[in-house]
Write a structure and sequence with these properties.
Distance between the termini: 63 Å
Largest sheet: 9 strands, mixed
Helix content: 25-40%
Structural class: alpha/beta
Number of helices: 13
Strand order of the largest sheet: 2-1-10-9-11-12-13-14-15
Oligomer: single chain
Length: 482
């Protein structure tokens, strides 16, 4: 296809493409600025096909991304919250020689050139690439493994295009669409918004830091129609939103990823006339591939919905054979949004593929109506005395316990049962006895955590997902509740 930015600037040159605070740029202005920045990056003399970027959701970061695409570069997105050692591993694995960072980033990394956005040299005009080839890898994002080093997920223009098509068919489009991007752009949930903006011709509203009061103010007074969020963000937005207050009349959808939310939160959202679409996706599938319509949220509580139009879904046993509805198994997907592979490690994708189907290594089941319920990661499941315990299910059961703010469940070895669940918690006036009583009212006895520990640090990724393995690794250092 034609260069998406060039094409969009030609189709709707005067439409606002991006807003950041009081700054607004049209698609034509974005295209012109991106070409200038492309010239500045080219002046650095780096011939590597890949360039790494560390950024916040800033206007300058957005424009650097657009500039790199005009040069035909593959963008290696780096999570700025990682340690120097973690980032150096990813830079080396990606084989990059140029790293571009926002001005606030100060760590020195092991790369040939590390250049702040404001330090880009003067450059000469460049001719943008004419086409965005379907098979071209435009982005690489590293996903953390539980037992091995992170893997670089490659995403092509075709992956992003088909993801945008599935999203458009699911959410619909209007001429006034504007998508608030506060989830990090260096994650797929954030970068996908930028790609869809070029395809749909919609405005992106960039916000660098999640502040619930500020976000609510934007959603009330701006004409934003859509926002991506994770459950912890939604809870904070609702806690800050005054009773009886609703978002602006154009607002249509809060797209929720990172796991289903609880009934109490959905009821709270409904009181504010806030439509929630819960979804399921991953870096390997270029954002969401399954979604639950707001109309089904109460009836199908806990479900992430049905596969989007371009996506096929199957639940399979350990041998790869499909299982009956209601039976748990591995979630397999067949989708045009699926990554062509992991950078430098083609064998890793191949081992999870079977006749075009991809094993996500998530566990779940389909109900009789075809709605998907995610029970957890294959590696997270706790096998206790022949029973399978899914931490997500246990955590969801405790969602309404008074005083409990956060909870994560992990498995620990046990001589009698093989493994048992324990929980790390954060909250006020919590006791082990009270937590056991509450759990036994909600869950089978073997699912109730055997011990409860007070958290010192809450380990989450930049997108708000719990890093379960880090909690498991520090259990011996935590204080047990009495």
């Amino acid at each position: 296809m034609e260069n998406w930015l060039v094409k969009r600037a030609r189709l709707t040159p005067n439409r606002v493409a991006v807003s950041a605070g009081q700054q607004h740029l049209t698609f034509q202005e974005v295209a012109q600025t991106a070409q200038k920045i492309a010239g500045q990056i080219a002046a650095l003399g780096d011939d590597n096909s890949r360039v790494a970027v560390i950024m916040t959701n800033s206007l300058q970061g957005y424009l650097v991304i657009m500039g790199l695409q005009q040069l035909g570069k593959t963008i290696v997105f780096i999570n700025r919250r990682l340690s120097v050692a973690e980032i150096n591993y990813q830079l080396a694995d990606a084989g990059v020689s140029l790293l571009l960072t926002d001005d606030a980033y100060t760590a020195e990394l092991a790369v040939a050139q590390q250049v702040k956005f404001s330090q880009l040299p003067a450059g000469k005009p460049v001719t943008p690439v004419a086409e965005y080839l379907d098979e071209f890898v435009t982005s690489v994002m590293y996903t953390s493994g539980t037992t091995r080093q992170p893997k670089g997920v490659m995403q092509t223009y075709y992956n992003h295009w088909m993801s945008a098509m599935g999203s458009a068919l699911n959410l619909g489009l209007t001429s006034q669409d504007a998508w608030l991007a506060v989830v990090p752009i260096f994650h797929i949930s954030g970068f996908a918004i930028l790609m869809r903006s070029l395809i749909y011709g919609m405005r992106v509203v960039l916000v660098e830091k999640f502040d619930p009061h500020h976000i609510n103010d934007l959603l009330i007074h701006d004409t934003i129609t859509t926002m991506s969020a994770v459950p912890v963000m939604l809870k904070q937005l609702l806690a800050d939103l005054p009773a009886g207050v609703t978002y602006n009349p154009h607002f249509r959808t809060l797209l929720l990823g990172g796991g289903p939310t609880d009934a109490a939160t959905l009821q709270q959202a409904a009181a504010h006339q806030l439509p929630i679409i819960q979804s399921y996706g991953m870096t390997e599938t270029a954002s969401q591939v399954v979604a639950l319509d707001a109309a089904d949220a109460q009836v199908k509580l806990g479900s992430v919905g049905k596969p989007l139009f371009p996506v096929s879904l199957s639940i399979r046993d350990a041998t790869g054979k499909p299982v009956a509805p209601g039976t748990s198994g591995a979630v397999w997907l067949k989708s045009p949004t699926l990554t062509p592979g992991y950078l430098n490690q083609p064998e890793l994708l191949a081992k999870n593929m079977q006749a075009g189907w991809f094993n996500t290594e998530d566990f779940g089941y389909l109900d009789a109506d075809g709605f998907l319920y995610i029970q957890g990661r294959e590696g997270d499941m706790i096998s206790s005395g022949g029973e399978n315990i899914f931490p997500d299910e246990v955590e969801a059961a405790y969602a309404t316990m008074p005083g409990l703010q956060k909870m994560v469940v992990v498995g620990v070895p046990d001589e009698k049962w093989g493994a048992v669940p324990v929980a790390v918690v954060m909250g006020t006036d919590l006791s082990a006895a009270a937590m056991r009583r509450f759990g036994r009212e909600q869950l089978a006895h073997y699912k109730v955590p055997q011990r409860f520990y007070q958290a010192n640090t809450w380990h989450v990724t930049a997108s708000g997902k719990v890093q379960r393995r880090l909690f498991a690794a520090e259990l011996e250092t935590l204080t047990a509740l009495q």
